[in-house]
Design a protein that fits this description.
7-stranded mixed beta sheet; 21% strand; globular; alpha+beta; 18 strands
Length: 465
């Protein structure tokens, strides 16, 4: 499967599919004659192998939890079965997938980048070396990878949907966060695209020299409030923190208005986004009143709260300076801790050791479940705040089992409102996709999932660069 520009699931390797009435059994009919880059025909056995590989413990794929609802996946991961019983090749071009629950439409899950189909014989022969010389069925073939420098792709003239318009793509690699350096290369004409630089941001846009693309992205930047630590186990303290921060001014002044102020969890463009959601306006008097109700009048007796961040860029430092000032104005004192070793930072917050910490979360699947269930259901391994509300759990479980779209939207909206009322996170902004392209670049289609889903095969140049 694949997503179109509106994030609707569309056919790709599957010509068509059908689902049982309960959405638990899905049957996919593959295109015949689709060739891997080495010339071998793709078959249903490759599909079963690729999906099995996603849940294999040795591979340790980050999306393994997304496919854990396939019948037999859990037993396979635990070593209790030699295969995933819910995956079956019915014939050379037909695949059956049986689920334990219909949590997210399977067609959406199969459209994510991790679910691409790989050739069983090559992967089994190459093992871990496969990643150095990957083979697929897509519009571009892998040519070479110069580590830390570039990846080169060439057109697959035998692509089933027709060859791409570009004969060659060079993906330049800039280790670390070098947005200004990338823009300088772009300005010199050495790149076809670039992020908009932080330096002279508004001036660059005002010049209108390049094609500027901006659209909402399905992502949220937020501070998680650990419900298991004092004084954050008191909802009134958490609410006071949100009311105390002038988030609109922060987004406008520190981040130059590049992103959309977040009142809730779900980003614009997500199924279930609620424009009428009751959020938290900037209201320091309300924050003071909540602290008084919690037993901390004027902040007296309230312990200092540590706010952790893995990023220490200039704008992040300015953000924390504003937050420190706003919170201190109502009696909340914070200590900002910068810990830029990401693996260590990740280990600490997943273990529940940090009281407040900065995170970014992007949708893997364009479904509200990607945010609401994964971050806030009490049994989710990604519930880093230790939040547990049986009302929210019930609404999210019911939404997963409901086929009617309007009913699902209502359930997700109700769950999101409870989560916001409980002040589990401090939402800062929803990300925007922003990119500059040279004026001769044509055919760019951007979805809310951003760069990983940019259809390179549709891009063309109206003159030689």
């Amino acid at each position: 499967m694949q997503f179109d520009q509106t994030l609707t699931s569309m056919p790709s390797l599957a010509r068509f599919w059908k689902a049982s009435r309960d959405n638990l059994t899905w049957t996919f009919t593959l295109r015949e004659g689709v060739k891997f880059h080495d010339g071998r025909e793709l078959t249903s056995d490759d599909v079963v192998y690729s999906l099995t590989r996603l849940v294999a413990p040795r591979v340790n794929s980050v999306v393994a939890p997304f496919f854990s609802n396939i019948v037999g996946a859990q037993a396979f991961r635990e070593g209790k079965a030699s295969r995933v019983s819910g995956l079956a090749a019915l014939d050379r071009y037909t695949v059956s997938v049986t689920l334990t629950e219909a949590s997210v439409p399977l067609v959406s899950m199969l459209a994510i980048g991790h679910a691409r189909i790989v050739p069983r014989d090559v992967v089994e022969r190459e093992g871990d070396r496969f990643g150095e010389h990957p083979i697929g069925t897509g519009p571009f073939k892998f040519e070479r990878w110069d580590h830390g420098t570039e990846i080169v792709l060439v057109a697959n003239q035998g692509y089933f949907a027709g060859p791409p318009k570009l004969s060659r793509v060079v993906l330049r690699i800039f280790p670390g966060e070098q947005e200004d350096a990338i823009y300088e290369e772009f300005r010199r004409g050495n790149l076809e695209d670039s992020p908009v630089p932080n330096q002279n941001y508004r001036q660059v846009l005002a010049e209108r020299r390049y094609t500027y693309v901006k659209r909402p992205q399905l992502g949220l930047r937020f501070y998680e409030l650990n419900n298991r630590t004092k004084p954050l186990d008191d909802r009134r303290v958490r609410q006071a923190m949100i009311y105390a921060i002038d988030r609109a001014a922060l987004v406008e002044d520190v981040f130059l208005g590049r992103h959309t102020l977040a009142r809730g969890i779900l980003a614009p463009g997500t199924l279930g986004f609620n424009p009428q959601l009751r959020g938290y306006p900037y209201d320091p008097n309300k924050a003071r009143e909540l602290l008084r109700q919690a037993g901390y009048p004027g902040g007296r007796g309230l312990p200092r709260i540590a706010v952790w961040s893995s990023a220490k860029r200039d704008e992040v430092i300015r953000e924390h300076q504003r937050m420190t000032r706003d919170l201190a104005a109502v009696g909340i004192k914070i200590d900002v801790v910068y810990h830029t070793d990401w693996p260590s930072f990740n280990q600490m917050y997943t273990a529940g050791k940090l009281p407040v910490f900065l995170l970014a979360w992007f949708a893997d699947v364009p479904e509200p479940d990607s945010f609401l269930f994964r971050l806030f259901h009490s049994r989710s391994p990604s519930n880093f705040a230790g939040y547990a509300n049986p009302v929210v759990d019930g609404l999210l479980q019911q939404a997963r089992a409901t086929r009617d779209v309007e009913q699902r939207v209502d359930l997700y909206r109700r769950a999101e409102q409870v989560i916001i009322d409980d002040a589990v996170v401090i939402p800062i902004y929803h990300y925007s996709y922003e990119r500059l392209f040279q004026p001769y670049v044509r055919g760019v289609e951007v979805s809310g999932l951003g760069d990983p889903y940019l259809p390179l095969r549709k891009i063309w140049l109206d003159r030689a660069p």
